[in-house]
Amino acid sequence: MLDNQGCWRLGVVARMRQLGLCLSLALLAATAPLAAHAAACCVSATSFGVGRLLIWEDFAVGLQLGHGRVLGYWDPGGTLHWNASDYSEGVSHAQLWAIVRLRERLEMQGWLPVLVNDRWSGETSQIAGGMGDAGAAVRWQVLAIGEIHRLPSLALTVGGFAPTGRRVEQTSPPLFAGATGRGSWGGSLALESEYAPSPWFVQLAAGATAFLSFEREDTGQREQYGPLVRVSLSAGREMVPGRVVVAVAALGEWESRLRFAGETIPDSQSHLYSFAVSLAWRFDPHWTSVGVLSSSVWPHGFGANQDARVDFTVGVRYGYF
Q1: Peptide bond into 33 cis (omega under 30)
Q2: pTM of the predicted protein model
Q3: CA–CA distance, 297 with 300 (Å, rounded to integer)
């Protein structure tokens, strides 16, 4: 059975991915272009998450529902350990989000996630959850796709999130399930670019996140997550003009070591690589549905201090114009 302190080093980093994945997939889609014609770029805006507004939309709202199973974890040395035969763990998540246009090239978006963690170990089980880390971002379309011939688009996103989630040390026995977020103030900066020669598109995004320190309730000492860097590459093809896009994405993330009571914790750095496929169907001028299947299960050496998971997410989006 896990104890609270035993969860701290690996748990703080690994359990947070349950929210990080949702936000990372949203960032993957944030680079879609502003072309209004029936091309892949029109649907790519929602291929992997919250995305952005289409050029004719004033605002959009959506809901995402998903579930993931944790199949194992990587230790600090990069060795993958599969779950024991009598242990099972999953994370269910729901996220409400909204985007509003402030100006022609400027948008604001916000999201509110809820997560539920289930753990089963032998005859013992626990289900717990709550609100994740709420966040908001502003996206500035510096250069729209097609604005300059043969140049890709360029966008800048500045975001942040509040400590509304529950950290690992705030969970309870017997299995300490129910971590739902970082539980720390944080801010992020990302650059995104896309090139979309119809009917294809290719998106590239890179961003960094920094966190403020917080006081642990169990020890009264200060703790701080290390800076986090994410890089994503996605590509897709429009299968039905103006309606259906199939896409794939690869995501890499690297997080520096934790600091606790002013000291850097050895072997607490982490990295992870994920792969995802999506199907976006714009079945109505206002409505789009999206399904995403993602996996972070790889051979040895492809992760450290992270979970090996398989997730499936479905979502629906309404755009007002």
Answers
A1: no
A2: 0.84
A3: 9
